Write the structure tokens for this entry.
Amino acid sequence: MRRFLINQGKSLLDNTRRQHHTTRRFLSILPSTSAPVPVPVPSRAPLVSLSRFLSSTSKMAASDSASSLPVTIDSINPKVLKCEYAVRGEIVNIAQKLQDDLKSNKDAYPFDEIIYCNIGNPQSLGQLPIKFFREVLALCDHTSLLDESETHGLFSTDSIDRAWKILDQIPGRATGAYSHSQGIKGLRDTIAAGMEARDGFPVDPNDIFLTDGASPAIHMMLQLLLSSEKDGILCPIPQYPLYSASIALNGGSLVPYYLDEATGWGLEISDLKKQVEEARSKGIAVRALVVINPGNPTGQVLAEENQRDIVNFCKQEGLVLLADEVYQENVYVSDKEFHSFKKVARSLGYGEKDISLVSFQSISKGYYGECGKRGGYMEVTGFTSDVREQIYKLATVNLCSNISGQILASLVMSPPKPGDDSYDSYIAERDGILTSMARRAKTLEEALNNLEGVTCNRAEGAMYLFPRIDLPQKAIEAAETVNTAPDAFYCKRLLNATGIVVVPGSGFGQVPGTWHFRCTILPQEEKIPDIVNRLTEFHKSFMDEFRN
Amino acid sequence: MALSYDSLNENVKKCQYAVRGELYLRASELQKEGKKIIFTNVGNPHALGQKPLTFPRQVVALCQAPFLLDDPNVGMLFPADAIARAKHYLSLTSGGLGAYSDSRGLPGVRKEVAEFIERRDGYPSDPELIFLTDGASKGVMQILNCVIRGDGDGILVPVPQYPLYSATISLLGGSLVPYYLDESENWGLDVDNLRQSVAQARSQGITVKAMVIINPGNPTGQCLSEANLREILKFCYNEKLVLLGDEVYQQNIYQDERPFISSKKVLMDMGSPFSKEVQLVSFHTVSKGYWGECGQRGGYFEMTNIPPRVVEEIYKVASIALSPNVSAQIFMGLMVSPPKPGDISYDQFARESKGILESLRRRARIMTDGFNSCKNVVCNFTEGAMYSFPQIRLPPGAIQAAKQAGKVPDVFYCLKLLEATGISTVPGSGFGQKEGVFHLRTTILPAEEEMPEIMDSFKKFNDEFMTQYDNNFGYSRM
């Protein structure tokens, strides 16, 4: 994974040089400009100026093209070469090396630990799991505990009751068995009930597909929708790079629409329209619109009014609405509220026959942050039965998602209720985490806004801040001399000076000529003041070094 | 409607996955109507009553609820070695079961897998070339995704095959190049036949890039001999094919003449130039063996002779899905380093695992013998894996009746079997078979005490079916 971007640039170069043994089909999807982009982008300037990396090939090992091995870098699927996933890219690899080196070489660095703000992985930064959920999972994993009297001394009574209830929903009480490919029916019933309670509209458990996290669900839907580069998916820019990567792997085209930083990352329907028309004029059939709400990496929470416009737009244009709602429980401001697209569509009076809507949810986010469990689901509505069968078939090829992730997905939709043994501790844990996240978001946002040349919209929701850095020309030039994107240059300097790991904005896409980075709000609260100090000091010295 | 069937990805529409196809759906319907169904369609042991091994469940329960480790009473419910092991695995994570791991899996568990492979094969294994996955299926998909560029790329797949391969190759838009296993030679693999398959594919302009072997075989249950594996590896060397070794049933061996030998060991035994140049990816899982932990979705693959830059690309694609689920990674760690003699839990663990394997061995025998006692049914012995794959010699009358019902003959037979007995099987056509020959696949997993009754009810159905359609001539050929 090291040097994804460089590798990619190199391989694109190689491909271009060796046109004769790369099929025309693959080359044709590269834009005719000299700057390759992560996925075909039919309008505006390239999202990521990869051209900056193209000359940085000196460090690469000798090409294995000369080898007679069947599988070499030159003979693998070019879609694999083309996709990128910056959240775990070059900077994270540098960070991991620094972390290893820190163990033996403590005095060589001006910091004593690496702080990973690159990925929304709360429990890796010390957030504790919600105890009730884990009690239930432990009991379901080792069911003979339920027969032991000592168990009552170690587990809450409602966790024991809940474990029994869940086991009764699993055929044969077999937590080690493959389940129905959509997930265990009883668990889907619980999730459907939770969604009904949230939205006030009916949910059919047969519309729910439980998956190993939201990512495989999104990948599955894109696989269904994309046949070739003639199929396009509207994605926000900046976007979570799962979308660009999955579109590239599936051989489709990413059709970008830009979120407006000046209006708190607002979504303009007029821009959507323009992008769709432009894509269509290039022969691209736009199949779906991706909306991430609350936004990743941008942290905005959409207003209901805006969501209505989006739903109407999808209806008019005949687009599938892919609603990434994995941060639905992460809202930090009192003037905004999460509304599901399902609720907005149904409130407008649109039913099954009016709009095709897929909503994605995950157990990795929220206050629970159970990333390692790989649990999630999608609710699929407004598709004909023949399309539904195809979605089901795709789910069956992978047999089923992991059972403990399925159980947890049902638990977060049916947490302890008032009167239950665990209720008070559960509420304290949940609110403790959410209010702390809100404070951390606020503190970091204010600190960033105090930096010279940095502006940062508030994190209304999700887990990220996405500050814009007005980099001095001298810094941009310095980045160019080392063949690095200016924001990546800044982020590497930040890492080497402070141990703080963030992701350059170029990994998410940004308006050309602007520079950002994404920073999670997840380090434990007691560490935030120190992070602010380190960041502030670093930024000051960076600006002192490069100020025009 | 925004999305019509016509506009869907053609590769998705083309893909077939029989293990959960028409028969399974009908069985689920009948079950809802209150009929007792015996699901022998999927290798899913716990669903049919196999109890999970105690020790790994204790360890994972403690990892799920790490606060128990601080409770002074934890020793009343958990043995000391399970507690120690839970602490060990938690120390390998960066935030317990709730944090994403490295996209390739926890480094500490990959090291344990490498040590297991070294003990098994007697050759070193590099943890950096081992990736943990959400089940072996995900691993197979990752590798095929990397290999297949388009329909000009072919993958050699045994027929009959496990339909994961045909389904994934379709989804990725590649070409399946079949090679036939020889039923009369106990599903042996003939290298001349391989050569023919490759020559034919090449004459059609297909670049054959990889070869899949399933050892022990699914659905066919045969174990490959060392000599046969050598021939296969030599063939891959000569033809420049990467070998994908599906070895998920390596613990499931039911005879003593042909123990499991890994492709990696045979390759290393062959020495240079083979051991340096043949590219190999081997797959394993926690879903099979005597573990049968299907619901965990845990697996790994090990790469041999794959260039570092390709490994990086595979890592990159793995990183898009963030990480495999962490509890299954711990199951994998436990599978490759189970309790040792002298450990508190050793006796119980050994008793449980031996009990399961010995019972599977007996069931394999009961099932093969049961099928061979039926009219117009012949069945090779299940040497390994979890399946019986009898050939059903359908009389012309039955084939005619199937045609009238608009069904493939073996689907017709299996549906009738399901309606009459509740036994849910998978028709051979879902795995591929020679034209005009019909099979079905059952697992050998129903509880041992139910086995005689199941085989009796099968025999009763089959013999009546054969009598009903028998007109004494023109059987579908052997």
Q: What stands out?
A: The longest helix of chain A spans residues 423-449. The CA atoms of residues 167 and 346 of chain A lie 34 Å apart.
